[in-house]
Amino acid sequence: MPDQIEAVVSVPLDRLRPFPNHPFKVRDDDAMKETVESMKQFGILVPAIVRPLDGGDYEIVAGHRRAHAAELAGISEMPAIVREMDDDTAVIFMVDSNLQREDILPSERAAAYKMKLEAIKRQGERRDLTCAQVGHKLDGKKSVQKVAEASGESKTQVQRYIRLTELQPELQEMVDRGKIGLTPAVELSYLKPEEQAAVVETIDSEQAVPSLSQAQRMKKLSQEGRLDEDSVLSIMSEQKKPEAWNISLPIERLQKYFPRSYTPQRMEETIIKLLEGWAKRRQQNRER
After folding, report:
1. Domain count for the chain
2. What stretches in the chain show pLDDT beneath 70?
3. How many CB atoms lie within 10 A of CB 228?
4. What local confidence, expressed as pLDDT, does residue 1 receive?
5. CA dist 202 to 68, 164, 172, 209, Å?
6. Is 80 helix (H, G, I), strand (E, B) or coil?
7. What pTM does this model have?
């Protein structure tokens, strides 16, 4: 039997409903403005993917940004492919259709990975009820490995992102803004909510964020039941040691830029002078 060809239908915007707990924010940024202008000029070129709901409405599985842009552009309906999907299949499709975007925040990626992981686990549990051969479960792969392979991340990296969902919203926002790095944020995610609240308060009062080693020490104290506001303040008030950098360049890469008579020491002196001149020009440009 040939595959059924899916038809594109026109769906009124007021019949569209957002996906429950959709992890990807729809932002009114420059990219959204460009999308709106494009729609005004050319219309909606890519149909949304929706699934039917009771009562004649539709749930958006892929196309939340397009639906919002259409509304801003004054368009009353949009093209869509209506597809029957169960909840877990819809979650997986929704996540996969958004993960290729470049502007995804760490907190969005974290929530998406978690949603997809839980959906895959539920699918595996249902398959276990109907499959007599144990080897058929998830094709022999763990759920987190499936998420990793589809996203192009390592299994460890996926697990790190999912840990971010255990952070308090204030700390998640700091990770999104790049104020706290992913690795120390993962360590902080193991703290109890009240301990995380103490970290947020200390960040505000001290105008400093915990380093990886500081976050690891707080995690250890938390596991021992000895982390409180005073210990958080004590750890984060410490002077951070500057990172030691040791940059080395292969001599083969440098020799082609210098006369043969140049010794390594003279190459180094020349490089330093060039960098000093570059830094001076940058400063002059900033002052203009």
Report:
1. 3
2. 1-5, 127-140, 239-246, 283-288
3. 14
4. 39
5. 38, 20, 16, 9
6. strand
7. 0.75
